[in-house]
Amino acid sequence: TDRGDRTVEGCLVQQTTQALGLLHDLDPSAESVFGDAGKYVALTPQDRLILRLLYDPRLKPGMGWAEAEPLARAALRDLRKGGGG
Q1: Is the pTM of this model over 0.85?
Q2: Which long-range contacts (CB under 8 A, 24 or more apart) does 78-82 make?
Q3: What does the pLDDT look like over 40-57, one tens digit per residue?
Q4: Could you tell me which of 4, 1, 8 has the C-alpha nearest to residue 41?
Q5: φ, ψ dihedrals at 65, nearest 5°
Q6: Mean of the per-residue pLDDT values of the chain
Q7: What is the C-alpha to C-alpha distance for residues 34 and 11, in angstroms, rounded to an integer?
Q8: How far apart are CA 76 and CA 61, in angstroms?
Q9: Rounded mean pLDDT of 12-36?
Q10: Is-contact 60 75, C-beta < 8 A?
Q11: In the predicted model, is pLDDT for residue 63 greater than 60?
C-alpha cells in the first residue's frame, strides 16, 4: 500500500476489533481507533473499556434495549471502578 505503515497498522487494529463485535465507525474526532480520521493506531483506554463492556457476561445476544441498557450501565460502573478502562 502507498498509505504507510502507520495507516496499515491502524486499519488492522480497527478491522480486527470490529470483527470482535464493534461494527460501526465513530465520528472522526473521537478519541478512538474507530474514528475515521486515522489519528490513533492502537486501542485507546476508551476502546478497551467498550470491548470489555461488549463481552460482559451480563449482556447476552438478542437482548432488547430496555433489558440491556440498565445492565450495560451497571457493568460500565463496575468496569470503571475496577480500572477496566
Answers
A1: no
A2: 79/49, 79/52, 79/53, 80/49
A3: 778 889 888 888 988 899
A4: 8
A5: -60, -45
A6: 81
A7: 9
A8: 17
A9: 73
A10: no
A11: yes
Backbone angles phi, psi at 26, to 5 degrees: -105, 170
Main-chain dihedrals φ then ψ at residue 59, nearest 5 degrees:
-95, 130
User: To which H or E segment does residue 14 belong?
Assistant: helix 5-19
Three cell numbers written together for 75: 457493568
pLDDT score, position 64:
95
CA angle 47, 40, 10 (to 5 degrees): 95
Cell 502507498 locates to 2
Name the amino acid, one letter, at 44.
Answer: T
Q: Alpha-carbon dihedral of residues 56, 59, 60, 65, nearest 10 degrees?
A: -150
Supply the DSSP string of 44-74, one letter for each residue.
-HHHHHHHHHHT-TT--TT--HHHHHHHHHH
Q: What is the pLDDT of residue 79?
A: 93
